Amino acid sequence: MKKKGKIGIIAAVVILALITLGGSFYTLPLNQYAAVRQFGRIVRIEETPGLKFKLPFIQNVQTISKTIKLYDVPLSDVITRDKKSMIADNYVLWRVVDPTKYIRTLDAIDLRAEERIEAAVYNAQKNVISSMSQDEIIEARGEKLTQLLTDEANSDIGDYGILVVTAEIKSLDLPDDNKEAVYARMISERDNIAASYKAQGESEAQKIRNETDKNVIVMEADARKQAEILEAEGEAEYMRILEEAYNTEDKAEFYQFIRSLDAFKASLGGPDNTIILDRDSALASFLYETP
After folding, report:
1. Is 291 inside a domain boundary?
2. What's the start-to-end Cα distance of the chain, in Å?
3. Are residues 49 and 19 in the same domain?
4. What share of the chain in percent tops pLDDT 70?
5. Are 48 and 85 found together in one domain?
6. Per-residue pLDDT reduced to its tens digit, 190-226
7. Which of 28, 193, 218, 225 yields a CA-CA distance of 20 to 30 A from 202?
8. 3-state class of 30 per DSSP?
9. Angle between helices 176-245 and 249-267 in degrees, nearest 10
């Protein structure tokens, strides 16, 4: 009987030891923080994944996600510097960076965190949009507005242990009552810009045409000048050749005789083949023999 009692005691001790040992270890998954709390007070934060140890019974573990979360911010009205109303639609990517602050200020409740984020983004949006005119906002690049909103929002939520990774504007639209007027003004401005570009293009085209016409005139004048020079050179060469060909008295008389025959032929080529010459003319001298 005593032996059975001892066995029962040993079994109870073993079971108690196993329970105690089992309550002393826990596994921390990837992308999670572990806040080890003792009597409600945070004694340490575990950030690396793996098998961890805690004191059984007196310590408990609260896990908090490290992952980036998405929060779709409700639509809100904002007023620009020139007192124009616009409707902003935003979303926010955020995550926990200080689990101790996150637990102490927000009790590690994501809903509370998103409430603070919404207020911070709205204030940041109000400050940024109110410093710009409607035209500046419409023409601004999205990256610039995103960075301004993100930096401004983070300055308001640093005490909560959370970080706004990005505060992105999905759309920044106009109220329906003045949307058409703004669109009409934008179209008019773009038409004016297009007309300016067209006028500049036409001016440049006219300059090119004028320059081309001037170059053509200069080239034609140069071509005529060269042609006249070549023609004069050709005539001079022709006269030189004639001079060399008939540089003796016999050759000169023969050339004069040939020219006279050509003149006769030209004179008798018409319907009237009669020619009247003076006896003393150069042509008649070839028809008479001199005594």
Report:
1. no
2. 192
3. yes
4. 70
5. no
6. 788 888 888 888 888 888 888 888 888 888 888 888 8
7. 218
8. coil
9. 120
Does the pLDDT value for residue 22 go beyond 50? no
The number of residues making up the chain comes to: 291
Amino acid symbol at 51: L
Alpha helix locations (H) across the chain?
2-22, 99-106, 110-130, 134-139, 142-154, 176-245, 249-267
| DSSP SS3 for 45 | strand
Q: Do residues 33 and 45 make contact, with C-beta atoms less than 8 angstroms apart? A: yes
Q: Which amino acid is at 278?
A: D
Rounded Cα–Cα distance for residues 29 and 26 (Å): 10
Claim to verify: residue 81 and residue 163 sit in the same structural domain: yes
Which pLDDT score is estimated for 118? Answer: 92
Domain count, the chain: 4
CA-to-CA distance for 198 and 129, rounded, in angstroms?
A: 35
Do residues 166 and 111 both lie within one domain?
Answer: yes
The Cβ of residue 161 has, within 10 Å, a number of other Cβ atoms equal to 20
Confidence at residue 59, expressed as pLDDT on a 0 to 100 scale? 79
